[in-house]
Amino acid sequence: MKHFNELGLAEPILRAISDEGYSQPTPIQAQVIPLMTDGQDIVGIAQTGTGKTAAFVLPLLNRIHARRQRPAQKTCAALILAPTRELASQIADSIRTYASNMRVSVTVVLGGVKPGGQIRALARGTDIIVATPGRLLDHVQTGAVKLDATETVVLDEADQMLDLGFMPTIRKILARLPEQRQTVLLSATMPKQIRSLADDFLNQPAEVSVAPQSRPIERIEQSVMHVERHQKRDALVGILRSEKVERAIVFTRTKRGADKVCEFLQKAGINSGAIHGNKSQPQRERTLSDFRQRKTKILVATDIAARGIDIDGVSHVINFELPNVPEAYVHRIGRTARAGKSGVAISLCEHAERGLLRDIERLIGNSVQRDGVVEVPVAAESQEEQAPKQSRPPRHENRGNGDAGSDKPRRRRPKWRRGKSKNNNQGRGQSGDAPRQRLAS
Ligand code: AMP
User: Fold this and answer.
1) Ligand 1: which of 2, 53, 87 to mutate, most ligand atoms within 8 Å of CB?
2) Would you say residue 17 lies in a domain?
3) How far is CA 150 from the centre of its chain?
4) Which of 235, 279, 367, 437 shows a CA-CA span of 20 to 30 A to 285?
5) Which of these three, 337, 356, 377, is where a domain ends?
């Protein structure tokens, strides 16, 4: 493994990295930094948590440090596009950290806030713009910024930009950049449309990949609680009160769902904040900052708002509802077990979500097979529940081979985790049993 001082980085950058406590480059950094320094285009498959931000930020800073020349008015030397405002702000924070010993101008261009401040900052000329695509295109079209002197463009979390419908906007932005430029495209997965974006806009890119697609982070202890819809709130409160929850992110599928979960947690005396696409930018920033500063312990979020967020010390991810898209599961649970720590991910799965669970298991199962773990089919293991008589049962209620007398939520390690850590069974068993006992009482 290389050391940072073998990667040709300038002294002020090396000092900042060392102040951050990084001793060695992560695999993506060891691959991407030399390629970017050589000026190559890159297509990279990398999830958050791999150190990919520093992988593209450090060589950008190195180039800016070497140039020692201010960018002309309304231009930028480097452009980073990110899918969400939170991720863009987080990238800008990382740039400021890694550039703490040098002079670099960074402009953050986000939707949801007044454009005046951004227009004034862009007018001065800026070394690095970090932007969400929609607002950046607005500024390009009104002439507030010109991209004809931009040397490097980084597309971060390209697959999420695709999911959010940004592809046409990204194509328009890329078309405004000079032909002679470096393009770096990073994505957690590589769907066809991203591949074709790379074919259309990248020049003989080097391909790097640091983790097999969709493989969950090994340090996360994953489990499923089979509950009915009406039991989910109690189950959630139970987990949050009993597990060793340092800080948790609770995921819902919808914005309204996030608000409702947040409300009942508040009523239960659990300090929480909700973050989703309907909240204004200042609200989103306040909620995130309260969570970061540990003023609130629980963040309730939709997928859109939470992907890519890097907050240390998130001990638990709770899927209050399973995601419709199985890949989102991998992104969600990746909010825990960051910076080398371990983490716990618990999914509350109601009957109607069994299909979603199976999709997730199929996705994750591929990577388990590579580990040579023998799997048990879901159907044989499934522990069906029946809702109590007074509640309306979900449509498929009585089809399973159920544990008919029980209204207890069941928690089990999903099949992709079973058999992986026999020597750890005791600890797992204890934490796994606790919510079950509590909910039954
Ligand atoms: P990212 O994948 O960019 O979201 O980074 C995930 C986390 O890894 C962040 O908290 C970084 O501060 C941290 N990190 C990045 N590079 C290194 C490194 N070389 N050594 C240790 N931690 C790192």
Assistant:
1) 53
2) yes
3) 27
4) 235
5) 377
| Whether 260 and 357 share a structural domain | yes
Taking the CA atoms of the chain, what radius of gyration do you get in angstroms?
23
Quote the domain boundaries for residue 148: 4-209
Ligand 1 pocket test, pick from 1, 9, 18, 26 with the greatest ligand atom count within 8 Å of Cβ, gives 26
Cα 22 to its chain centre, rounded Å, is 21
Residue 250's pLDDT band, with cuts at 50, 70 and 90, is very high
Q: List the CATH number of the domain containing 228.
A: 3.40.50.300
Confidence check: pLDDT of 48 > 70: yes
The pLDDT assigned to 210 comes to 81
pTM confidence score: 0.64
Q: Is 47 in the pocket of ligand 1 (CB under 6 A)?
A: no
Cβ–ligand 1 distance for 216 under 6 Å, the answer: no
155 inside domain: yes
Residues 81 and 196 in one domain: yes
* Contact indicator for 299, 152 with CB cutoff of 8 Å: no
Per-residue pLDDT at 336: 83
Q: How many domains does the chain have?
A: 2
Residues 205 and 225 in one domain: no
What is the token pair recorded at 16? 């900042």
If you measure from the C-alpha of residue 25 to the centroid of ligand 1, how many angstroms do you get, rounded to a whole number?
9
- Our answer on whether the CB atom of 90 is closer than 6 Å to any ligand 1 atom is no
Task: Give the Cα separation of 161 and 84 in Å (integer).
Answer: 8
Are 293 and 239 part of one and the same domain?
yes
Check if 313 has its Cβ closer than 6 Å to any atom of ligand 1: no
> Closest by alpha carbon to 435, among 219, 222, 226?
226
Distance from residue 232's CA to the centre of ligand 1 (Å): 34
Domain shared by 73 and 203, yes or no: yes
Convert the pLDDT of each residue in 75-86 to its tens digit: 999 999 999 988
Q: How far is the CA of 23 from the centre of ligand 1 (A)?
A: 11
Report CA(53)–ligand 1 centroid distance (Å): 7
Q: Are 341 and 349 in contact (CB under 8 A)?
A: no
